[in-house]
Amino acid sequence: MNMMMIRTILTGLILSAFAIAQPNSDQDMDGVPDAVDQCSNTPFLDEVNAEGCSTNKLFLPDEEDNDGLDVILGYGLNNNEDILGRETQHTTNLQISYYQNDWSYSIRSGYFMANQEHGTLDTILKIKRKFKLNDTFKLGMGVGIKLPTYDYVGNKTDYTFYGSLSYYPISDYSILAGVNYTFINDIEETVPLQDINAYYIGTGHFFTKNLYASISYSYADSKFTTQHPTKALMGILFYKIDQKWYTTLSYRHEIDDDDLHNAFNIKLGYSIW
What is the pLDDT of residues 100-139, one digit of tens each? Predict the structure, then answer.
């Protein structure tokens, strides 16, 4: 066998291997060839079915379809230089959320400590219904009641209407937005009060099925007519520890203001069922 024949055989083997490999290429490395992969951008660590789609839906706890009961404990550190005597507040929170079909019900309250002052925070009751338009697009509508358990002069019951949107253009990316309107019933002391109009918009990404991060921009009117609206950036990191436990870290920083206004919160959630 001469050298020319050997080169011809090797060239033929290489071309044959390349031709065989092409139909079996797997760009998202989920084990399903691109030719039959119906979900071409699944996160690297996700389990997939024969069509290449995640077997576990990439949704946060309050977006899942299963019924459940969650208990969430939280700690927060808030800085607001506009509140004299309470510039720095430490807060602890307890939230109980119940999910049934497309409805969710929650109650949240807490306790604050600031310098020599301490007391309970407002207690918030919230009811929300989600509307699943398809597998990637969800709307939410809800109403909230803020009970005046926070101790300050003129504090009364307020009512809020919520609207939200979650859109997943691909399986591991999300676009989120929302609006709310709060009817302020507090008693005016020295400064005229007004209702609060607010909105937010942001985006999020599932790095794995258990790790999610988002960043958003928010705008909210002040209930005091003499104060400017609040504009803030917020980052959230969500991690699902196992089937029962999960945790959330968040940081919020107000922009377009010379004074310091920020908040750090950590929450630990447990799914009872």
Answer: 888 999 999 999 998 778 899 999 999 999 998 887 889 9
Domain count, the chain: 2
Same domain assignment for residues 220 and 175: yes
Residues 22 and 145 in one domain: no
Q: Provide the sign of the torsion angle of the four alpha carbons 33, 37, 41, 46, taken in this order.
A: negative
Asked if 3 and 130 sit in the same domain, the reply is: no
> In Å, what is the CA distance from 80 to each residue of 77, 85, 263?
10, 10, 9
Query: Are the CB atoms for 270 and 70 separated by under 8 Å?
Result: yes
Residue 25: exposed, middle, or buried by beta-carbon count in 10 A (0-12, 13-18, 19+)?
exposed
Cβ-contact 38, 51 below 8 angstroms: yes
Q: What confidence score (pLDDT) does residue 82 get?
A: 64
pLDDT at residue 247, as a whole number:
95
Measured from the Cβ of residue 22, the count of other Cβ atoms closer than 10 Å reads: 11
pLDDT of residue 24: 59
Pair (19, 75) in one structural domain: no
pLDDT exceeds 60 at position 201: yes
Range of the structural domain that residue 113 is part of? 64-271
Which pLDDT value is given to residue 103?
A: 92
Burial level of 79, CB count in 10 A (0-12/13-18/19+)?
middle
| CA nearest neighbour of 130 among 174, 86, 100, 87 | 100
Are 196 and 83 part of one and the same domain?
yes
Decide if 19 contacts 184 (C-beta within 8 A). no
